[in-house]
Design a protein that fits this description.
Blueprint lengths: L1 E7 L3 H11 L5 E8 L6 H14 L7 E3 L13 H4 L21 H11 L5 E5 L4 H9 L7 E7 L15 H5 L1 H8 L5 E4 L1 H4 L6 H8 L4 H21 L9 H8 L4 E6 L1 E3 L10 E3 L11 E7 L1 H12 L3
The structure holds beta-D-ribofuranose and calcium ion.
Length: about 300
Amino acid sequence: PRKIIIDTDPGQDDAVAILLALGSPAEIEVLGITAVAGNVPLSRTQENARKVCELAGRSDIRVFAGADRPLLLPPRTAENVHGKTGLDGIELPAPSMPLQEQHAVDFIIETLRAEAPGTVTLCPLGPLTNIATAFRRAPDIVGRVQEIVLMGGAYFEVGNTSPTAEFNILADPHAAHVVFGAGVPLVVMPLDVTHKVLTSPARNRAFRDLGTAPGEAVAAWTGFFERWDMAKYGSEGAPLHDPCVIAYLIRPELFSGRHINVEIEIASPLTMGMTVADWWGISGRAPNAMFMGQADADGYYDLLTQRIGTL
Ligand code: BDR
Ligand code: CA
């Protein structure tokens, strides 16, 4: 299986991504989960990550707390979407598994130095603060990363948190600037993809019909956040963003896109955090990211339902 570190700010969709990874041991080995401030503050995201591991019956997974704020900007949260806890929709018990004492950034650095070069994939599902901090503090690890597969940004969909920016990038654009410029092989799951994998009553029912605690939780979570998104977009379902990252590791053929140049805007107050994606190859700048654009939504939900059903 592929060794990964999940860097995350749970968040209901982050939680589903964690469940998908833990339900796929043949393809994925989770070396650790690093929490970052994002959808809700760090005190919540690290606790939520542990709640989700316990929901999956995996209290052996190590969870680390990382950055409690972006590199330069003031913290930005998204309680309007995710609720006060970040996992509103169902109340999970307080976790009994411990939070690791080591800082998330130190864990990322130590792991990349300890594992063979090119064998660890980073899976950021939130603001990129932890990853950028690790790269800045220990430049020797950058060349050892197998790949970064992240959820963030947008091109045709433009933005969901400002008119021109997606939440994960806008929350810490300076960190995103570091990561996109690092020279690591990058796969990006932008809103262009995630807005094609919408929840629906039938898809939610399939989770609930699993008849398990994880299935029930996923159905409750999607039922919670889709109210917000459906009102916002006037759509019949809501994007289930972050599991796209994990689904790509298991079934890459579910997604297609282009290897293009993507730069992060960090200067303009108007377009701060925009992923300037050169989809048409106009700029002459060298490609640095596989930027996805299409997804097989039925295949995605089938995979999610099947794997979460094993937990
Ligand atoms: C991203 O922002 C968060 O609200 C979600 O968890 C996802 O990672 C979507 O823009
Ligand atoms: Ca997230």
